[in-house]
Amino acid sequence: MPSGKTVKLILYEVLQFACLCVPLFVVMERFASLIRFVKSSDTAYWLVVAASVAYVASVTLFVWVPLKYSTLKTQRFSEVTNWRPVPLAYVVLSTLPCFAIIISSSKVQVDAGAYYDRFTELPVSLVLFSLICVDILERIRPLPLTGQANTLESDFEMPGPVLTHLQQVTSVSAQLQANGGDSDTSLRSPVQNGSLSGRWGDADVRSLSRTSSAAYLYSSHSRSGPLRFIWIRDPRHDLFVASFVFWFDTVELVRMAGTYSVYYSAWVFPVYILAYLSILRVVITPNSPLLASISVLSQDLPFLVVRICLVGIFGYVTPVQYILKNILVTGSFVYFVFMTKLKLLNRGSMF
To answer: What Cα–Cα distance (Å) separates residue 302 from each residue in 3, 237, 249?
Structure first.
């Protein structure tokens, strides 16, 4: 009987291969149906279907399988830390052809003057969902699928101090009195050698002790009892949520490209090109410091420009909320990364 790791590996590989093949077959079949409608020929339909089968077989044998073998067996990419080869191969071999076929479908229908298929929801529901699945599989691959999440939190959260024991802290004045020091001098001077002393020090210590005790008791009480299940947090679940949230802006842009007015216009080309450039962010590892700047340059800034243009030409084909999101993300990045380094804004006491 195969071990759990073997079953997990087979499951992941089958899912990734399905995400590679299914979008290509579905999109190509829809394109073949479109060609049959435009050309009124069954031969064209079967030629396109045969071309899709040949493409998938060639990609699988000459690119996907060797890449998987190099990644899993020879560990040729074991030293790669800032980019991921498997998502890169996926967006080049699957996502790019799907987007190219969808754009070509628009051009074919416009030239023929016959509007047959806008591939409604297909780019979003199938192509991008398959991309998200591949991203999730690559990120969850090192993690176990069974067991508690306590042992995984160190991989997702920064380590920090943990309050485990509280005890009474002796003030500086009390230590001086115990050592025979001059208590009158301590009471007269609230700050001595950079430390609090006297009644100011005692009050500060007592206040800190009460605050720490209250926070510790509140945290302990809030994570116990019949409602303690609402405090449960699993980093594997957080991974799924973060992966979908990461792609919402690109999903909305691709969805907007499927509207009738945009799809049968020349604006479908820049929309899908910008969406694909945004998709290339999946190649960067999730914890890479390059991801923040690449996200602004490849997504928020170009998306903001194209959305403003589309709203000005076609009306509200996209929610204003995404325009505001692009403005806020781009503006905050420029402000906190560049403008705060200016002499005028480099003062900690201003705000």
So the answer is: 48, 31, 12
